[in-house]
Design goal:
With 346 residues, this protein is an alpha+beta fold. It has helices at residues 2-23, 98-103, 108-126, 129-134, 136-151, 170-212, 214-229, 242-264, 268-280, 291-297, 328-338, and strands spanning 24-27, 31-37, 40-46, 49-52, 58-64, 68-78, 84-95, 156-167, 317-318, 324-325. It has a three-stranded antiparallel beta sheet with strand order 3-2-5. Strands 6-7-8 form a three-stranded antiparallel beta sheet. A hairpin with a 2-residue loop joins strand 2 (31-37) and strand 3 (40-46). Helix 3 (108-126) packs across helix 5 and helix 6 packs across helix 7 (214-229). The chain is rod-shaped and about 185 Å long. Mean pLDDT is 76; it is low at 280-287 and 292-346.
Length: 346
């Protein structure tokens, strides 16, 4: 009798141990347990620690409540300004409602991954290339809102979305490099021009001060010679101040003017010889020139008409003075035509 009782107690203990082994569950600190009894969701979500379920009746699903880091595969897209880019990102999310993550969606991690890829392509098409390269904070916020809106119903909270890398074609990289180089060259030229302007103002002030004290220019020249000679060169280049040349030129101008005036005036002996000659020369009397002689002396004469027959001329006679006397008939014709009295040349 006692032996049978002992055997029954041992059997009960073994059955209890087996039941306890089948019903006992351990939920970790970063997990939550969702119990489905006969396929029906239990309202109570099991917290971390030891818990019991009915073997064969209840089914416990553990949900990780940690922040999950999920890389988003690189997506090819065309920006709003028609530039082909390849963008990849990373998403940080966690489960805030374990029951919804189990019941509302089959695999919440796969769903979040697909939603992130779709949102990333959409944000690429709505943005410019400059925004993708320089204004990523705004794009990250917009991408986070696009993913978080459907994920709230899945019991998932999006903590952060970051765009990791933007890959550009080689041609676009070269174009951007040329643009950046041109911008840097422009800034360098502006800086050089500004430096030249400031230097010119300072040099003008220095020249104004030196003009009041000419000895300052000589002192500056000596300082330059000392600076050049300190390098132990075999050849010394000595600058010659331009102001000294201008001073010498101004000093030589009165002397040159006097020399030119002296060269233009004739010597005194020649002046004395010219004065008596001018006094001895009488005034020349120019006799009046007769009209007939003027007509004969003119190089241009009217050509005779071929229909008129001219009379033969008489032989000309020369007077004692060598002047040629015209025939009487010619003189008469001339007198009749012009109405003038004939002249006798002596």
């Amino acid at each position: 009798m006692v032996q049978e009782l002992v055997i029954a107690i041992v059997a009960i203990l073994c059955a209890g141990a087996l039941y306890a082994a089948g019903a006992a569950r351990v939920v970790k600190q970063y997990e939550r347990g969702v119990v489905l009894r006969l396929g029906r969701l239990r309202n109570d979500v099991r917290g971390p620690g030891f818990t019991m379920v009915l073997p064969g009746v209840d089914r416990l699903r553990k949900v990780n409540m940690q922040i999950v880091t999920m890389p988003v595969p690189a997506q090819d897209g065309i920006t709003r300004d028609n530039v082909t880019v390849r963008v990849d990102a990373v998403i940080y999310f966690k489960v805030v409602d374990a029951a919804s993550a189990v019941v509302e969606v089959e695999d919440y991690q796969f769903a979040v991954s697909q939603m992130a890829q779709t949102s990333l392509r959409s944000i690429i098409g709505k943005s410019d290339l400059d925004d993708l390269l320089s204004n990523r904070e705004k794009l990250n916020q917009g991408l986070e809102l696009m993913i978080d809106s459907p994920a709230v119903g899945w019991g998932v909270q999006i903590d952060r979305v970051e765009i990791k890398d933007v890959s550009l074609p080689e041609t676009m990289k070269r174009s951007m490099a040329r643009q950046a180089e041109a911008d840097r060259e422009r800034r360098a030229r502006v800086i050089n021009a500004d430096a030249e302007l400031q230097a010119s103002k300072k040099l003008a002030q220095a020249a104004k001060e030196m003009s009041t004290q000419p000895a300052a220019l000589q002192l500056r020249l000596l300082q330059t010679v000392v600076a050049v000679a300190a390098e132990k060169n075999s050849t010394l280049v000595l600058p010659f101040p331009v102001e000294l040349l201008r001073f010498l030129e101004r000093a030589q101008q009165p002397q040159l003017q006097q020399q030119l005036a002296q060269l233009q005036q004739p010597p005194p002996e020649q002046q004395e010889q010219q004065q008596p000659q001018q006094q001895q020369l009488p005034e020349a009397v120019v006799p009046p020139v007769p009209q007939e002689s003027a007509q004969q002396a003119s190089p241009v004469q009217s050509a005779p008409s071929p229909s008129v027959r001219r009379p033969s001329r008489a032989p000309q006679r020369k007077g004692p003075s060598g002047a040629t006397a015209a025939p009487a008939a010619a003189n008469a014709d001339t007198d009749d035509r012009s109405g003038a009295e004939p002249f006798a040349h002596h």
